[in-house]
Amino acid sequence: xxxxxxxxxxxxxxxxxxxxxxxxxxxxxxxxxxxxxxxxxxxxxxxxxxxxxxxxxxxxxxxxxxxxxxxxxxxxxxxxxxxxxxxxxxxxxxxxxxxxxxxxxxxxxxxxxxxxxxxxxxxxxxxxxxxxxxxxxxxxxxxxxxxxxxxxxxxxxxxxxxxxxxxxxxxxxxxxxxxxxxxxxxxxxxxxxxxxxxxxxxxxxxxxxxxxxxxxxxxxxxxxxxxxxxxxxxxxxxxxxxxxxxxxxxxxxxxxxxxxxxxxxxxxxxxxxxxxxxxxxxxxxxxxxxxxxxxxxxxxxxxxxxxxxxxxxxxxxxxxxxxxxxxxxxxxxxxxxxxxxxxxxxxxxxxxxxxxxxxxxxxxxxxxxxxxxxxxxxxxxxxxxxxxxxxxxxxxxxxxxxxxxxxxxxxxxxxxxxxxxxxxxxxxxxxxxxxxxxxxxxxxxxxxxxxxxxxxxxxxxxxxxxxxxxxxxxxxxxxxxxxxx
Amino acid sequence: xxxxxxxxxxxxxxxxxxxxxxxxxxxxxxxxxxxxxxxxxxxxxxxxxxxxxxxxxxxxxxxxxxxxxxxxxxxxxxxxxxxxxxxxxxxxxxxxxxxxxxxx
Amino acid sequence: xxxxxxxxxxxxxxxxxxxxxxxxxxxxxxxxxxxxxxxxxxxxxxxxxxxxxxxxxxxxxxxxxxxxxxxxxxxxxxxxxxxxxxxxxxxxxxxxxxxxxxxxxxxxxxxxxxxxxxxxxxxxxxxxxxxxxxxxxxxxxxxxxxxxxxxxxxxxxxxxxxxxxxxxxxxxxxxxxxxxxxxxxxxxxxxxxxxxxxxxxxxxxxxxxxxxxxxxxxxxxxxxxxxxxxxxxxxxxxxxxxxxxxxxxxxxxxxxxxxxxxxxxxxxxxxxxxxxxxxxxxxxxxxxxxxxxxxxxxxxxxxxxxxxxxxxxxxxxxxxxxxxxxxxxxxxxxxxxxxxxxxxxxxxxxxxxxxxxxxxxxxxxxxxxxxxxxxxxxxxxxxxx
Lengths: 485, 104, 385
Ligand SMILES: Cc1cc2nc3c(=O)[nH]c(=O)nc-3n(C[C@H](O)[C@H](O)[C@H](O)COP(=O)(O)OP(=O)(O)OC[C@H]3O[C@@H](n4cnc5c(N)ncnc54)[C@H](O)[C@@H]3O)c2cc1C
Ligand SMILES: Cc1cc2nc3c(=O)[nH]c(=O)nc-3n(C[C@H](O)[C@H](O)[C@H](O)COP(=O)(O)OP(=O)(O)OC[C@H]3O[C@@H](n4cnc5c(N)ncnc54)[C@H](O)[C@@H]3O)c2cc1C
Ligand code: FES
Known about the structure:
The complex is a heterotrimer.
Chain A: E1 3-7, H1 11-22, E2 26-30, H2 56-65, E3 70-72, E4 75-83, E5 91-98, E6 107-113, E7 115-118, E8 122-124, E9 137-139, H3 140-150, E10 157-162, H4 167-176, E11 180-186, H5 190-196, H6 208-220, E12 225-227, E13 229-236, E14 240-247, E15 260-263, E16 266-270, E17 273-275, H7 278-282, E18 287-290, E19 293-296, E20 309-311, H8 321-335, H9 346-366, E21 381-383, E22 388-389, H10 390-395, H11 401-408, H12 421-434, E23 469-470
Parallel strand pairs in A: 1-2, 1-7, 2-3, 7-20, 9-16, 10-11, 10-16, 11-12
Antiparallel strand pairs in A: 4-5, 5-6, 8-17, 13-14, 14-15, 18-19, 21-22
Helix pairs in contact in A: 1-2, 1-8, 3-4, 4-6, 5-9, 8-9
Chain B: E1 4-5, E2 25-30, E3 33-38, H1 43-49, E4 54-57, E5 62-64, E6 76-79, E7 82-86, E8 97-99, E9 101-102
Parallel strand pairs in B: 2-8, 4-9
Antiparallel strand pairs in B: 2-3, 4-5, 6-7, 6-8
Chain C: E1 2-6, H1 10-21, E2 25-30, E3 45-46, H2 55-76, E4 92-96, H3 101-112, E5 119-120, H4 123-129, E6 139-143, E7 147-148, H5 151-164, E8 168-171, E9 174-180, E10 183-189, E11 192-195, E12 198-201, H6 207-213, E13 221-230, E14 240-243, H7 245-250, E15 258-265, E16 271-277, H8 289-301, E17 309-320, E18 327-330, E19 337-341, H9 347-363
Parallel strand pairs in C: 1-2, 1-12, 2-8, 4-14, 12-19
Antiparallel strand pairs in C: 3-7, 4-6, 5-6, 9-10, 10-11, 13-16, 13-17, 14-15, 15-16, 18-19
Helix pairs in contact in C: 1-5, 1-9, 2-9
Residues 8-13, 30-33, 38-40, 75-77, 119-124, 141, 144-145, 169, 273, 276, 313-314, 320-321, 324, 466-467 of chain A line the site of one flavin-adenine dinucleotide.
GO molecular function, one term (chain C): oxidoreductase activity
Domain FAD dependent oxidoreductase (chain C): 2-360
EC number (chain C): 1.-.-.-
């Protein structure tokens, strides 16, 4: 029987597990969350207002399908490796520490499988803003997660800002947990939105029902929605006391003279999402893209450039939960050995192709524009972990990325540049373009000058540990726990 | 084997399907002070629910939750003597001792 | 004299500074930039404690003394945005577990014979020096002269100092050379030809390949090493602390995975734990085995590390010659070509003395070091027939 491991139990991973089980595979699912559901399904009876949760029926279906799988929740997968065909045949080997999040002495679990589906999702991309380290500033996703999972909000008056339709459910959730939402500020302007969407994001067919519902919620809660507008500074002493918003031009450069102060005690920032690529990178799967986004390359059957490895969901492109579900199903069927033209794939293939168009429009409408760096001050902290200011990065922009990081400590802290990586790259690229002197060809700005000896690859994206693990947890029993029937 | 066939059990003492079921309350000790939260909340959720927005000393200023999903490591606390626990990821268990961390 | 120094790692940067200060017209050529490779993928241990008596120990002792003044000077001359060397003369503590005491005692006694300070610590002094060390440790020797610095920053500082003394940085790959009358007259690069009177090959683990391109192949090979980095924490490790089995691994030619534990804290609050030694070519997938092996040894040394979060690991390729000695001096086959490579796991520590030997070879500058043991003409490194 084909052994399929699924890394990540969000919509994509769950759909992959369901499909692989249906196709007769033996399935193991691992996720570091305390329970399956990923970023999308995190409702808790008693903690979550039911109006915040969509697709609960589908979730229940997926959960009952999991009855046929081995599920490791609370499983921080810190390593994935391909074992070359050898004495025991080729395989994918995953190592996890299983137990309460960041606990000490968690159980060591090793899973060995014939095929892997990477469904590690994405996290918020929040661009740095002067004052963004003040308590009370969170990502939009944090506001959403805290509302859904914990039933709390960080502040009483929250300003939501950034780009993309995700800001809408966040505003609604904040309102439902009792925070006043003083405004939703969408950086993109009418032109970009009209190119990608119709003039208002919720008017797009296909996502219309859900988005229209958010629009209704905004109206009901009297939440102002502004486009071509963004937070350019967060004010406060020990915590957020207000925010400066300004009109942004088509490149997201603040328009001088348009600044105004809005009183608030929390700011939720989300300028899009960035995929969690490290597992794919560790396995040597090809990743492509530019500074606007890098994603795992997959074929029509969601197979990566490593034959045993499939990828689905936000790691292959930001398209939302429906796209993740469809891609997950395709990946699960294919990983279990079904042919691409098997009729069981048809429905999922149709949905996926439609959702890919949706994703393209999303990027056209809301993709990050290069002018955002204009709202930074020289002393704005870019790397939150190591408190590295923009100035330090600019001053070292001329040396290779690896040397710049070591000199400034930007991206070297506990989050391993997950939060600041993209911003640091943008600042380095901008500084190199405007620099004179020693900058030369061969210093690519996408990190291709830095990570591998003698040549190019992914700079910040290369993280040899997928999740935090304690030194005492690395050893442990080295016994496969998959396929032991 | 720690995987639960046919179940989606959480592991260890966080026992999501165990004592801290969906309803009811938990009490944790934050710097020696008792703080009540709702069962199932993360430590970050309990801290925010009690009105705290920041609980870690960074190089400049205080930090609390930023990403909310375990990515940024802003929210670190010491739990029951173990350092470096992400408060936004760890479910609060009745009796947990939570202490501040300060980055030197 | 026009000199091309090829490779802007620690060795090339130190050579460029030394030569530029002595009035040469230096161009520093690197295909990626300053501190792009091994010198940003290593640790910054400046060790005398791991050297058995011999030519490399002489080089290390000399270099160790030079580093103190050099690091001070680099920090003092720092200009805007330049990082500090983070030089710390913190001393090393080498320990043996039960059964290893005799070997370590003998090793230290031999070192004392060549002037390396090595003092046995009694239990009380050891507890004061390293309170978190495992009580299992049977013997500890203190080496006050061991030091550390931040190698990438230091390389950047050396290169900047060289530039202040008139060196020019060219980011381009060296692809070949042009000779006239048996001497190198120019190097070919992806940014065009550069006319020179002398060339110094400081290409680290790629020095063999660069030598081939310049008509003088050299047997320099990569030896992969993995290092672990923990999350930042309050300081609990005060010296460079290592297990005496390190002494065995350094000189070994064995291809299989070997590890030895060196534990040190950094000014950033992280603890660095090195390292492994594997001969696997330029393979970039170290996998988990070295990580797990290093962690197991480190937690034996410092049990508190069991609960410490591992933040990341990284790896680099030590450039080594088959006889494990640096290769420094003029190539006997191609006039005007000099090598400065093969420093294996000690290139940071040995950089100042290496630069001194290069200045001696290229410009005839004085040195108190004996250059002979390091000359490229010796047998066994692919130069002599
Ligand atoms: C904070 C946040 C909140 C969001 N909320 C919503 C929302 O309310 N509504 C909405 O429509 N969209 C939301 N999104 C968008 C969401 O990402 C997608 O709609 C959808 O969840 C994508 O599904 P996925 O399966 O690709 O990834 P995800 O749902 O992100 O699932 C990925 C899973 O992989 C796991 N994982 C990753 N790495 C590892 C590892 N090394 N070890 C173990 N497990 C690992 C994660 O724990 C996670 O559960 C949110 C996104 C974020 C970041
Ligand atoms: C894991 C590990 C730990 C270590 N720990 C220590 C330690 O604690 N103390 C210590 O002293 N040493 C240590 N070392 C050893 C030390 O890192 C090396 O000896 C030293 O960095 C070598 O420096 P280098 O300048 O010779 O090489 P590199 O730093 O690799 O520089 C060589 C340069 O040459 C360039 N180059 C190559 N080919 C060409 C070409 N054709 N054209 C143009 N440019 C080219 C490359 O781009 C590169 O920048 C360690 C090494 C490793 C791997
Ligand atoms: S808030 Fe980011 S890790 Fe907890």
